[in-house]
Amino acid sequence: MEVSDVLSVIAIIISIMTVFFEFYYTNHNNKSSLMSIYYSETYKKYLTRLVPDARIDISYNKQTKVLSGTDKLESVILDIRNDSLYFKYQNKNFYNKLIEKLNLIDDLLVLNGQKRLSEKAYKEFETELDDIIAKMYELINNNYTGRS
User: Fold this and answer.
1) 74: Cβ–Cβ under 8 A, 6 or more apart, which residues?
2) For residue range 104-139, what is the model confidence (pLDDT) as tens digits?
3) Among positive and negative, which fits the CA dihedral 129, 135, 139, 145?
4) Distance between first and last Cα of the chain
């Protein structure tokens, strides 16, 4: 076998490998683009409007030492849970992590909404709630951008 024959075989192998790699990356990019559309359509309204609006509605009465306005965020959390069911079948890992965050938020709202809180306890509640919400945003954004 001459050198030109060996080079021809190598060129053919490289060409075939290039086709397979191109197919794989195109398929992967198409799937990622499709998934990012699903993430955007599912969560845009929650991340940009509904969660922040519901979070702002939560207030603390210093005289009665009671939280109010948690119902709206609890309702939004339930809606997110329901709208996320698609991901239970398409990205189970993401879905389970999201449900975990939603449950933490819901538990925090229910537990602290049923008792009297000192101002210090309210500040701790507020910090913990904002931290969990931020982690939920990060989880959704990372999956939207494919960095999960």
Assistant:
1) 106, 109, 110
2) 999 999 999 888 999 999 999 999 999 999 999 999
3) positive
4) 49
Report the alpha-carbon distance of residue 131 to residue 137 in Å, rounded.
10
Q: How far is CA 8 from the centre of its chain?
A: 49
Could you give the CA distance from residue 29 to residue 42 in angstroms, rounded to a whole number? 20
Q: Write down the residue that tokens 């919400």 correspond to.
A: 133
Whether residue 114 contacts residue 74, with contact meaning beta carbons closer than 8 Å, is answered with no
Residues near 76 by beta carbon (within 8 Å), at least 6 away in sequence:
46, 50, 51, 54
Supply the pTM of this predicted model.
0.79
Q: Provide CB contacts within 8 A for 126, sequence distance 6+.
A: 60
Compute the C-alpha angle 81/84/90, nearest 5°. 145
Backbone angles phi, psi at 38, to 5 degrees: -65, -45
